[in-house]
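User: Sequence recovery, please. Input:
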């Protein structure tokens, strides 16, 4: 097989997934999801946004300490992707993990308590913002080291393959991870071993304070480089929850059918700094405003209302319900017990 043939083999025969926009939501899409499913997508996105808003407020007042990386703006990517998975699939992600945790259905109260460093937290207060974890949901953690989650995800996929288990492993990572050596090593090994893994790049255009143009020789698009590894790939509008959902469904189907990895690049944007302490002097306001005009929290419900899928009253009811959930979570975290010093060495090793 020539190099040209290999490239053609790995191209999707139909690139409609990278072009589809919620603006083009048609009758077939409308029928594929029920009203409740559409509303649940919005509910989860709004839940994440309000959770992050509450985290920012409680970081400012000292209830949350350490590092805090918010997912605000990227909700359509996490919710769209994880709504396409099932209970047999593993999730591994990076330190900006709140959105993925909530999209997977992790307990809101325990998630907030973890950020507060409380005993009732998902990791008993020892993990904090960057290490949300719930094995019962196959949510195998946020990871603080840039790119460090990639080989762990490959290991999970290897275990699924070795044990002949159903499902895939999805690994979320940011564009900053792509300059790590382990990124390329993991892609290569996953391709060589045909692992059932979905590499999911959340390209929010900045690795900390460095724009892609400053640190990457290959331009703004990462997915074409997957031809090097003979991994099929695609790009998707990460601000469009339905496009991300459809792309992930396609990728999962191909992974299970063709017995090899897949790569999705989701173009998205964080509306906040890299961390809460980031002054964002490296970004101009025009760029931020441009992306904020694509805010899925605003656009998605408006489209659903315009298409008569829901009403403004139903959207407002969801917002009120979610606001109460977040308020209760903050109250739960505030009132939860602090871990005692004699628990500091608990759960260090598996027994």
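Assistant: Recovered sequence (351 residues):
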């Amino acid at each position: 097989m020539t190099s040209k043939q290999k490239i053609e083999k790995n191209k999707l025969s139909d690139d409609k997934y990278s072009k589809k926009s919620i603006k083009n939501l048609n009758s077939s899409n409308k029928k594929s999801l029920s009203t409740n499913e559409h509303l649940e997508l919005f509910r989860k996105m709004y839940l994440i946004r309000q959770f992050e808003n509450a985290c920012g407020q409680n970081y400012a007042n000292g209830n949350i300490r350490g590092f805090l990386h918010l997912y605000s703006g990227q909700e359509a990517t996490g919710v769209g992707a994880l709504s396409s998975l099932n209970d047999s699939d593993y999730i591994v992600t990076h330190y900006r993990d709140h959105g993925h945790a909530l999209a997977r259905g992790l307990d809101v109260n325990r998630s907030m308590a973890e950020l507060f460093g409380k005993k009732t937290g998902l990791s008993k207060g020892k993990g904090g913002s960057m290490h949300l974890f719930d094995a019962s949901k196959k949510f195998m953690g946020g990871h603080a080291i840039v790119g460090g989650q990639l080989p762990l995800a490959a290991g999970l996929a290897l275990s699924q393959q070795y044990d002949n288990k159903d499902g895939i492993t999805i690994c979320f990572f940011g564009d900053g991870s792509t300059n790590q050596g382990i990124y390329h090593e993991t892609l290569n090994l996953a391709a060589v071993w045909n692992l059932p893994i979905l590499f999911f790049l959340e390209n929010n255009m900045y690795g900390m304070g460095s724009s892609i143009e400053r640190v990457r020789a290959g331009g703004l698009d990462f997915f074409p480089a997957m031809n090097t590894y003979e991994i099929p790939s695609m790009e998707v509008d990460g601000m469009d929850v339905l496009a991300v959902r459809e792309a992930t469904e396609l990728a999962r189907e191909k992974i299970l059918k063709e017995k090899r990895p897949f790569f999705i690049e989701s173009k998205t944007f964080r509306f906040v700094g890299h961390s809460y302490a980031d002054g964002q002097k490296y970004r101009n306001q025009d760029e931020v405003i441009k992306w904020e005009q694509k805010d899925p929290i605003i656009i998605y419900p408006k489209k659903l209302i315009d298409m008569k899928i829901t009403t403004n009253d139903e959207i407002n009811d969801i917002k009120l319900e979610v606001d109460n959930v977040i308020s209760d979570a903050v109250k739960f975290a505030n009132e939860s017990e602090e871990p005692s010093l004699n628990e500091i060495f608990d759960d260090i090793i598996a027994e």
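Residues 24 and 243 are 10 Å apart (CA to CA).
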